[in-house]
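Run folding on both entries below.
>entry_1
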Amino acid sequence: MSNWDLMMPGMGLTSIGLAGLVLSYAGIAHTFIDGMHALTGLTMFVGLIFLAAGILDGGVSTSNRAKATTLVILSISLGFGMYAMVMNTSNYTVTIAGILMAIAFPAIIISYLYMKHPTVAKPIGAIVSLAAATGIIMWVSFGIFSAPDTYMIPQAVVDEPAEDLTPSGPIFVIEILADSTIEGNPDYDPDVATVSQGHVIEWTNADTLPHTVTSSVDVGDTFDSGMIGAGEVYTLDTNDLEAGEYEYFCVVHPWMVATLIIEAPTEPIKVLIPEGAAIPADDQLYYDPTVLDISVGTTVIWDNVDNTMHTASSGTPDAGLDGVFDSDIMSAGDTFEFTFNNAGSYDYYCILHPWMVGTVNVE
């Protein structure tokens, strides 16, 4: 007959140990890292010993109750085992399963021999123990001299620099205006924005309430900012959009509607600072061309082909710099580029030679 006083704690300890092993090797808890895997494994083995002793106490029981108990134990073991095999994140699951079988099968055989043939159990047990000890010694010895696999040894993690996914390119600024939550008030500025591909659009929320920038035709599939809090910025890389017209709106305040027009990228236009520009003369060109007409989103490149230093600084000699753009000092051969994202007329001059003036008209 089976000994239920041994079987009951055996079943409990086995279940607890199996649960701990599953948690350890599935990555659900940090018990594997912290060494708790060893404790839960030991708990499971102690439970198996109690369980085996209880089942085999007084011989192999053939009662229906013993068979049912065995089936329950096998079901629990197989269930946890399959879960651990399939759902775990450890690379050593097969190794652990092999170790468990290497321990379980000899234990079952020795237990059976102790019950049926006690006279041969001791020598067979000694042989199995010597074989196990020899295997462990050989593994350690050869592992030391042949650079063993770093099994269960924490490896130094080299932190690779994270890839910078921030979109890069000329910035086109759109402002979500204050009090735009009131229906009829201006909302997005500009209301119709024409942007060349390659630009990065920045929506800045100047209001005190959250807003969104959401494509209208597909309700956010093309682009969707999510909630933009007060003072926050949403960026959109126009390289991800095809040329065309996109209406967008605020999900929170659907009367806030604006239009985004994406144009195919335009080639930069070059303005030369010719030789001799530093000397005032009636027939001298200071910026070539002096007056430039372009469309919104065009990039202008100033190229200093003179043999002295110059600047291209927005403003006028009388009023001074206005801060829209400034090349700083450009030595001979240097270039400076600026993208005009807003319509208007922009005067500029050289702060070193104030008779050098030019104009960019943006439509």
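>entry_2
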Amino acid sequence: PGAPRKRGAGGLVAAVVVAALVAGGIGGALGFWAADRNDDSGSTTVSASANPQDLKRDPGTVAGVAAKALPSVVTIEAQGGDGEGGTGTGFVYDKEGHILTNNHVVASAADSGQLTATFSNGKKYDAEVVGRAQGYDVAVIKLKNPPQSLTPLPLGNSDQVAVGDSTIAIGAPFGLSNTVTTGIISAKNRPVASGDASGGSNSYMSALQTDASINPGNSGGPLLSSGGAVIGINSAIQSTGSSGQSQAGSIGLGFAIPINQAKTVAQQLIKTGQPVYPVIGATVTMDEKSGGAVISDRGTGGADAVTKDGPAAKAGLRAGDVITKFNDTPIDSGPTLIGEIWTHKPGDRVTLTYERDGKSATAEVTLGQRKGDS
């Protein structure tokens, strides 16, 4: 989540290691003191069984799900030609070596940079970008020499997720690989617009919200159900810091791209290398909380806001109309509308509710398409 880091997590990792060593030293000293005091006490202790069977965890437990999923999750290191880059996460999509992740994790290395993917067993592989979808914030990379033993993570059905369902997130927060956190689905269909530190590269999603701890470095990692199926790709966090504090940590507000949408995008990227976006053929204002998605007076570069003979034009929509519902979902802004449109596919027929001159009306629209990021 957030912008890719320009610095490694060495400082944090070092601090964790030092803390462990200090704690270990204190524990050793206390242990020696206790043993010395108890030499003649006659006390008898009983040790827990060291039977290896005791180390096994039931498949339905968090430990069981994590143990099965961790070998299929990778830590991605991305570095651009200018030396800028960061750490993120991805997971095995298929046996051919495709890895699913976020666009913002690999964007810095997409053109002339370097990508590596490291598995939980420490084995590292060079990788290359297969395709990126900036708007969806989804990317597919491929291991250059994939091992034969790849196990893709099973993909769930994000449409069937319910608020309150348990979640498990796996990633590399602040570079700490193979970190597992837990929580629940806090909300569904949460409108989220996110971007990089430059204020560009905006993406829009109708997200799954979770309180599982997600931090910078978790981006691209799987959000799992209690059964171990991927239900989303962890992508963004809300923080209390200012926009300049791209490394702010978790406050329990994490957002994931629903896997049903991500799967469709991944299939497009693997097949053609570029994304396909459903569109209504109208430019809307990007003001937040404007009471709806307002169709602009003019489109990009002074073009018509409503594309001639496009889906919106055929449905009778025009500049100034305020779209307030997409099917049964209330729309409060342009970004919310885009996020909802992008959960569908070109050719889908949807119902738009809009206001014009103080009166409400509906229109049936067949979604068109746009290929590639513009």
